[in-house]
Amino acid sequence: MSEAPITESEPLTFTLPDGSLKLVRKGTTLQNVAESIGSSVAKNAVYAEIDGQYIDLIEAVQKSGMLNIITLFDEEALDPIRRGCLLLLAASVNQLFPSARGVEGHLTEEGFYYDFATDKPFTSSDLLKIEQHMTKLIAENPPVF
């Protein structure tokens, strides 16, 4: 006998790391689920895990399971944050120095690095411009897909 499919009006049940249960409607975004847990959780959320699978916060929930909201304060958040910074650095350099070519970028235990091929080495002034441009891009809060 097969189970009836869950409709959008039926609740989904999530088990949180502390063992408590959270009921939400199917189709609710994980960001909204994080907000329903607490404003601090939502403000600091980086991504979510459902049954061990990494899921973006903009995704709508479709099934019940074990839910863990990963925040800025969780060690698991470091790699996605570092990867985001690496991509932000690359975007800033490409916008400010169109002739610069990204050669290699990797995450490390301490952070990340990115090597660029340029006609001339970056100066201290260039690095300041790159940093300011990264800050500007963050303030614009563009969607990341």
Structure explained in plain terms:
- The chain has four helices and seven strands; from the N terminus they run E-E-H-H-E-E-E-H-E-E-H.
- It has 145 residues and is of the alpha+beta class.
- It has two domains: 11-73, Ubiquitin-like (UB roll); 77-140, Threonyl-tRNA Synthetase, Chain A, domain 2 (2-Layer Sandwich), CATH 3.30.980.10.
- The chain is elongated and about 60 Å long.
- The mean pLDDT is 90.
- InterPro entries: Beta-grasp_dom_sf, TGS, TGS-like, Thr/Ala-tRNA-synth_IIc_edit.
- It holds the Pfam family TGS.
- It comes from Klebsiella pneumoniae.
- This is Threonyl-tRNA synthetase.
Topology, pairings included?
Elements: E1 11-15, E2 21-25, H1 30-37, H2 39-44, E3 45-50, E4 53-55, E5 65-71, H3 78-96, E6 101-107, E7 112-117, H4 124-140
Parallel strand pairs: 1-5
Antiparallel strand pairs: 1-2, 3-4, 3-5, 6-7
Helix pairs in contact: 3-4
Number of strands: 7
CATH homology superfamily name of the largest domain: Threonyl-trna Synthetase, Chain A, domain 2
Fill in the CATH topology of the largest domain: Threonyl-tRNA Synthetase, Chain A, domain 2
Number of helices: 4
What percentage of the residues does DSSP assign to strands (E)? 25-35%
How far apart are the first and last residues' alpha carbons, in Å? 39 Å
From the 3D coordinates, which CATH architecture of the largest domain would you assign?
Answer: 2-Layer Sandwich
The major β-sheet equals:
5 strands, mixed
CATH top level class name of the largest domain: Alpha Beta
Q: Write down the overall geometry.
A: elongated
Secondary structure: helix percent: 25-40%
- Parts with pLDDT < 50 across at least 5 consecutive residues: none
- SS content category: alpha+beta
The gyration radius over C-alpha positions equals 20 Å
Mean pLDDT: 90
Domain unit count = 2
Walk across the major sheet and give the strand order: 2-1-5-3-4
Encode the helix/strand succession as letters: EEHHEEEHEEH
